[in-house]
């Protein structure tokens, strides 16, 4: 029910900010992600790319390691 409400708000807004550690929620709601690390922007870009790089940085693994963008 709360996800339906969030989608409704997103449809009406030009900008919607989600702060979350739930990567699946971020993936479902966002088309752009800013990854913050200790108060600094580590990466800003398309959701799939940023989440893939975040997952790799945190675990050393990703579901698609060929597409990890190394900085």
Could you give a short description of this structure?
This protein is 44% helix and 18% strand. The chain is an alpha+beta fold and 71 residues long.
The number of distinct β-strands equals 2
How far is the N terminus from the C terminus? Answer: 38 Å
The 3D shape can be described as globular
Largest sheet: number of strands, sense, barrel closure:
2 strands, antiparallel
Tally of DSSP helical segments: 3
Structural class: alpha+beta
Supply Rg.
13 Å
Low-confidence stretches: none
Strand order of the largest sheet: 1-2
Can you write the helix and strand succession as a string? HHEEH
Provide the helix percentage. Answer: 40-55%
What are the main properties of this structure?
71 residues; alpha+beta; 3 helices; 2 strands; globular
Describe the structure.
The protein is of the alpha+beta class. Helices cover 44% and strands 18% of the residues. It is built from three helices and two strands, in the order ααββα. The protein has helices at residues 2-12, 23-29, 47-59; strands at residues 32-37, 40-46. Strands 1-2 form a two-stranded antiparallel sheet. Strand 1 and strand 2 (40-46) form a beta hairpin. The radius of gyration is 13 Å and the shape is globular. It starts with a helix and ends in a 12-residue tail after the last helix. The model has no long low-confidence stretch (mean pLDDT 84).
Write the layout of secondary structure elements.
Layout: H1 2-12, H2 23-29, E1 32-37, E2 40-46, H3 47-59
Antiparallel strand pairs: 1-2
């Amino acid at each position: 029910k709360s996800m339906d409400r969030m989608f409704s708000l997103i449809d009406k807004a030009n900008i919607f900010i989600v702060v979350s550690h739930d990567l699946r929620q971020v993936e479902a709601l966002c088309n752009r992600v800013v990854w913050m690390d200790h108060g600094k922007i580590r990466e800003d870009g398309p959701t799939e790319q940023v989440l893939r790089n975040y997952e790799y940085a945190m675990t050393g693994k990703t579901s698609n390691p060929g597409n990890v963008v190394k900085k």
